[in-house]
Amino acid sequence: MKKNNKPETAKLRLKAEELLKKRQAATDSQLSETETLKLMHELEVHQIELEMQSEELEKTRAIAQETAEKYIQLYDFAPVGYFTLSQKGEIIELNLRGATMLGKERSLLINKRFGLFVSNETRTIFNHFLDKVMSSLHRESCEVSLSENHNHPFYVQLTGIVSENKEHCLLNMIDITERKQAQDKLKENEAILQKLNIDKDLFISVLAHDLKSPFHSMLGFLELLSKNVYSYEIEKIESQVNIIYQSAQKVNNLLDSILIWAKSQSGKFLFEPKELNFRTICAEIIEILKQFANTKSITINYLAPERLIVFADANMLKTVLRNLISNAIKFTNDGGRIDISAELTDVNVIVSISDNGIGLEPEILDKLFKVSHIQTTKGTANESGSGLGLLYCKDFIEKHGGTIWVESKKGKGSTFRFTLPNK
User: Fold this and answer.
1) 105 contacts 99 by C-beta, under 8 angstroms
2) Which pLDDT does position 193 carry in this prediction?
3) What are the two backbone dihedrals, phi and then psi, of residue 115, each rounded to the nearest 5 degrees?
4) pLDDT top residue among 25 and 221
5) For residues 222 and 234, is the Cβ–Cβ distance under 8 A?
6) By CB neighbour count within 10 A (0-12 exposed, 13-18 middle, 19+ buried), where does 201 fall?
7) Is 157 left (phi over 0), alpha (psi -120 to 50) or beta?
8) Which helix (H) or strand (E) holds 302?
9) 46 contacts 15 by C-beta, under 8 angstroms
10) DSSP state at residue 112
11) Amino acid 158: pLDDT
12) Tens digits of per-residue pLDDT, 153-182?
C-alpha cells in the first residue's frame, strides 16, 4: 500500500498538462506523424498509471472500511461495557453492552450523567473515582452498584484512564454481581460458622456441667459405701445405692439424648417418611410413658381423630412425641392432665400437646429451641433433664418441612404444637 499518493498524482497531472501543451503546439506547428504517435503513446501510458493508482486507492478504501466495521463489531458486541465520559461524567459514547448493563437504549444515554445510574450508596465512590481518573495519568479502578432498572443488586467494576487530550475518561465496566454475591455468601457463612462455634462451646460447657453433677453424686456415695459398707445399716446402704442408681439413670438418659442429637446433626439419623396412622404411633408412646405418668397420678387423653394419616418418619415422630409428652409429665403437678390433639388442614396436620402444669416464664419461651441456651430445669417432682430434647425435636420436625412452637403462661400450663405433612 502506498503511503503518499497526492505528490504522484500531482506529478502526473503536470506531465499531462505538459503533454497537452506540446500537443497544442504540435498542432499549431503541424507535428509529424511520428511525433503525433509518440505523444499519443505517452498519454496512454499516463492514463494507465492513473487507472492503476485509482484501483489501488479503491482497494485501500475497501480494506479501511472492512477494518472499521470489524472494530465497530468488536466494540459493540464485546462482553465489557465501554464508555467515553466527559470531565463532568456525561456519556459521550458507549457500546451496546454498556447500554444493556445500564438498562436503556444507547441513543437515550448520550449526554446523560453516568453517576445517575450508580446507587446512592456507592455514588460517592464513583465521583471520587472520576476525579482521580481525570487528575491522574494512571489507570484507576473501583467497585460500585447500579440502581437503574435493576430489581436486584447489580455490582460492577469500573476501570478508567484519561484520554490523550486530557478531556475525556475512557471507561470500561465489568459485571461482578456473581462474584460479589459469592463474597457476601462467604462472609455470611463465616458469620454462621463463628456463631456455631460459640454455640458449640456453650453447648459443651452445659453438657459437661450436666454430666459432672450426677457423677459427683455417684462418686461421693460410692466412696462412703466403700469405706463404711460393713458399718452401715442395710437401710442406709439401700438408700445410698438407690441414689447412685438414680444418678446413673440420669447419666444414661443424658447420653441417650446426646447420641440422638449427634446423629441428627451428622445426618446419620435415617429419614424414611411414609404414611402413618397417628393414633397408632401415639398410643405406643402413651403406653411407654403411662407408668411415669401414674407415679404423679397424671391422666393422658388422646383427643385426635381415630383415623388420622400423617406422612412422617416413624422413629423421628416417636422420638418427638416421647420427648414432648415426657416434658409435659415432668412439668405437671400431681393429679394433672395432658391432652393430645390434632387438627387436619388443607396442607398439613397440626399436633398439639397441652398440659395444665407450671408453665414457662416469658423470657424462656424464645430460648427453648436454641442450642446456645440449653438449660436443665427441674420438674415438679425434682425431675431433671438435659434440655437437648427440644433441640432434636426441632431438627426432626424441620426435616419434615414443618415447624414447632410453644404457647405458655406461668402457672397455667403449656401447649407445644408442631406441623407434619398429611400426604
Assistant:
1) yes
2) 83
3) -60, -20
4) 221
5) no
6) exposed
7) beta
8) strand 299-302
9) yes
10) -
11) 95
12) 789 999 999 998 899 999 999 999 888 888
Place of cell 430445669: 377
pTM over 0.70: no
Q: How many Å apart are CA 126 and CA 144, to the nearest integer?
A: 7
Going by the DSSP 8-state scheme, the letter that residue 154 receives in this structure is: E
Report, in angstroms and rounded to the nearest whole number, the Rg of the chain calculated over CA atoms. Answer: 45
Beta bridge partners of 160: 140, 171
Helical residues (DSSP H) of 78-176, grouped into ranges: 96-102, 106-109, 123-134
Q: In the prediction, which pLDDT does 3 show?
A: 46
- 313-369 residue pLDDT tens: 998 899 899 889 988 998 999 999 999 999 998 889 999 999 999 888 877 777 777
Q: Per-residue DSSP letters for 322-377? A: HHHHHHHHHTS-TT-EEEEEEEE-SSEEEEEEEE-S----HHHHTTTT-GGG----
C-alpha cell at 378: 427441674
Cell triple for residue 176? Answer: 461482578
End-to-end CA distance of the chain: 81
